[in-house]
Q: What sequence folds into this?
């Protein structure tokens, strides 16, 4: 099971402690050029200190524009003594512009690159990012037992032994894409040992069958380091005409931000390389945001996790009712997600996830101690029905999502993991995502990510050869939930008003479309071919499977039985909820 990045507040706080906060706005026209401080493109020198000096000049308040002329610049992790975990932090700036005009930043070592904390009106454009030695290794499995396997690591990825491997996957050696029904292993590597030049033995803490002759990607980082771009409590952010070729964690994360726009923002396999992976984790991750998240004309490929993960935040479980207005809460993994005063929290039982009440937050504070208990006090009296174990979901931090003409392909996990409200995903392409192309979801069994979706439209998309991995979803296009004990919703209403319309779904192991627990579901004018290739899941023989939904319209879909997979048995199967 992966360890999520979301809300690593301790990391952010340690970075910000070294930042000088500028409050006096400079003349908007003044710019700082990294070459003024000694950066030289296209040479072999280390430009880190020149960049740090330029960033400090911006942070001091003398300018709001950082210019990075065209060319390649070499940077080194740990090169900013005031900021050990991210190279270039910005704090409390308004009107910040970073102009790359085609510059490429090559970072040696593992680090976050840009951190923006409490900034407004931020624009980043024209940059690309790569690492000479990505935070993963690739090689062929040459020997395997239950408790270790040997890898002939390719020369591009020098190894010395002792490397951490928090996760690994296996890939098809010919296509260098995730293998069908692939291995997706986390947190079971005890150690690594160098047997000879580029021969790494990976010791396991439990039995795992790793096939000889398969290609494996050993991830040396997953979620432990910051993304290339981290936006924390920012507003009105734009990133455009930028490319990431490798990232030790996520490509871009926006946490509790308002209005984030990505245009021509790409995460790509480096042209001319044979790398199977780009970002080690999510391509983009949006948690607890407000306003609108807009993605247009972006391409994300080869990530170690979702292309787009967007959610209202984390469910907080009720640990204790203190009085009529206050409760002690805690995330199940003890992550911190503090609601703001006036945020509206929906209250649900974990065995239904149907909100039975909502209340406005008066205050939320972290209790002393190491358990990350959060005291939440509400304006209204709490309902008598509230009980220990119920969850609070933040219904205020639900950004609208607009996603147009984007492509997500060749990644582990979902194309889009959608856990927000007011969503339009249109004219996009999802290819070879190991799980669903689009998954409308919420759950209280793993990471307790919220919230039940509302008003979701997924239309005119191509979803091709998705949902074939080890952790297979019920369909390539899904709206469902995992309740207590991994149960499907037994009643409609976890999600509301979901439209799947005019999509082409070509090639999938299980159902093409699956929905459970939706109140207000429209499935129409979709074209489905080669569904149900494997049909290993209980509902995997139906091209369209609807379970425990209400107000359902299914019309105009094209499902030719002669053009489906070997396990196909039925075009549509709908089981209504029982009263």
A:
């Amino acid at each position: 099971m992966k360890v999520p990045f979301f809300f690593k507040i301790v990391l952010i706080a340690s970075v910000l402690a070294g930042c000088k906060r500028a409050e006096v706005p400079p003349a908007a026209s003044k710019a700082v050029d990294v070459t003024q401080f000694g950066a030289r493109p296209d040479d072999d020198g280390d430009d880190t200190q020149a960049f740090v000096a330029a960033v400090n000049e911006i942070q001091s308040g003398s300018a709001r524009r950082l210019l990075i002329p065209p060319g390649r610049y070499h940077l080194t992790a740990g090169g900013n003594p005031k900021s050990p975990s991210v190279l270039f932090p910005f704090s409390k700036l308004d009107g910040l512009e970073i102009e790359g005009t085609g510059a490429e930043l090559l970072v040696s070592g593992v680090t976050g690159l840009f951190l923006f904390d409490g900034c407004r009106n931020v624009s980043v454009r024209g940059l690309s990012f790569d690492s000479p030695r990505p935070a993963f290794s690739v090689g062929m499995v040459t020997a395997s037992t239950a408790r270790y396997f040997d890898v002939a690591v390719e020369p591009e990825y020098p190894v010395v032994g002792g490397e951490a491997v928090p996760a690994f996957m296996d890939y098809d050696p010919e296509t260098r894409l995730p293998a069908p029904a692939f291995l997706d292993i986390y947190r079971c590597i005890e150690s690594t040992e160098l047997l000879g030049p580029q021969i790494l033995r990976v010791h396991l803490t439990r039995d795992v069958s790793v096939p000889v002759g398969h290609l494996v990607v050993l991830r040396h980082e997953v979620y432990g380091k910051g993304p290339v771009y981290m936006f924390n409590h920012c507003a009105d952010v734009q990133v455009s005409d930028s490319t990431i070729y490798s990232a030790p964690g996520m490509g871009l994360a926006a946490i509790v931000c308002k209005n984030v726009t990505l245009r021509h923002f790409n995460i790509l396999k480096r042209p001319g390389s044979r790398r199977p992976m780009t970002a080690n984790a999510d391509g983009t991750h949006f948690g607890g945001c407000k306003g609108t998240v807009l993605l247009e004309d972006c391409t994300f490929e080869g990530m170690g996790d979702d292309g787009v993960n967007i959610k209202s935040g984390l469910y907080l479980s009720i640990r204790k009712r203190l009085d009529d207005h206050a409760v002690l809460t805690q995330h199940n993994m003890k992550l911190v997600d503090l609601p703001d005063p006036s945020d509206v929290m929906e209250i649900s039982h974990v065995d239904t996830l149907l909100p039975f009440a909502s209340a406005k937050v008066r205050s939320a504070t972290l209790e002393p101690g190491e358990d990350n208990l959060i005291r939440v006090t509400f304006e209204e009296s709490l309902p008598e029905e509230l009980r220990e174990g119920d969850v609070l979901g933040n219904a205020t931090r639900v950004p609208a999502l607009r996603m147009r003409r984007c492509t997500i392909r060749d990644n582990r996990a979902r194309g889009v993991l959608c856990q927000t409200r007011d969503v339009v995903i249109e004219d996009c392409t999802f290819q070879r995502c190991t799980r669903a192309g689009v998954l409308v979801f919420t759950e209280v069994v793993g990471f307790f990510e919220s919230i039940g979706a509302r008003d979701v439209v997924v239309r005119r998309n191509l979803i091709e050869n998705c949902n074939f991995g080890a952790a297979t979803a019920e369909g390539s296009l899904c709206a469902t939930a995992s309740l207590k004990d991994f149960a499907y919703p037994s009643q409609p209403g976890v999600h509301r008003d979901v439209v799947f319309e005019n999509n082409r779904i070509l090639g999938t192991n299980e159902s093409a479309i699956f929905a459970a627990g939706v109140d207000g579901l429209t499935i129409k004018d979709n074209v489905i071919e080669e569904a149900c290739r494997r049909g290993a899941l209980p509902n995997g023989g139906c091209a369209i499977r609807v379970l425990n939904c209400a107000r359902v319209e299914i019309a105009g879909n094209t499902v030719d039985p002669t053009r489906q997979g070997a396990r196909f048995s039925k075009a549509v199967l709908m089981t209504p909820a029982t009263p």
